[in-house]
Structure formats: structure tokens, C-alpha cells
Amino acid sequence: MPYLVTDACVLCGACVFGCESGAITEGETQSHIDVNLCIECGTCERNCPSEAIIYVDDAEVTAKLTTQVTTQL
Ligand code: SF4
Ligand code: SF4
Question: What is the pLDDT of residues 8-40, one digit of tens each?
Fold first, then answer.
């Protein structure tokens, strides 16, 4: 049940700066949240000026993301 960044992200950097877990990095078109580092504090969702961060309450999506991240390591 992770937080995700949508394509509404304008790369303002607020979430990267505000994440105490260091779970967010800026990509070329939007920021990305590492679900393995995120402690789901919700700070990024509250601080995003574009409302680009959403909470996904879906076990299948979580499993898929976790697999993707693990595969990339
Ligand atoms: S705070 Fe929102 S708009 Fe800014 S970089 Fe993060 S996700 Fe993107
Ligand atoms: S929910 Fe908290 S720990 Fe997770 S990415 Fe957002 S600010 Fe970082």
C-alpha cells in the first residue's frame, strides 16, 4: 500500500527535500518513491503543491512495484 507519484508532478523538488527517509528521487519527467525505503508517513502527499502524490491501497500494485524495484537492484 504505497505512495506513488503521478504524472501531475512538476519536479518542484519539495517531496525530495521533505522526505526524511530519503525515499524520493527526481527522475527526468517526475519524482519517484522507493517503496522499500518509504515509511508511509504521508509528508510528501501533504506537501506536494500539484497533488501529484497519491496513496494506493492495492496489494497487487504494491507487489508489482516491490518486484520492479527489487529487480532493478
Ligand atoms: S512535491 Fe509533487 S510536484 Fe514536487 S517533485 Fe514532489 S511529486 Fe513532484
Ligand atoms: S510517505 Fe513519507 S517516507 Fe514515504 S516517500 Fe513520502 S515523505 Fe518519504
Answer: 999 999 999 999 999 999 999 999 999 999 999
Which residue's alpha carbon is nearest to atom 1 within ligand 1?
Answer: 48
Gap between the Cα atoms of 7 and 52, Å rounded: 7
The domain made up of 3-72 is a member of CATH 3.30.70.20: yes
- What is the Å distance from ligand 2's center to 45 Cα? 8
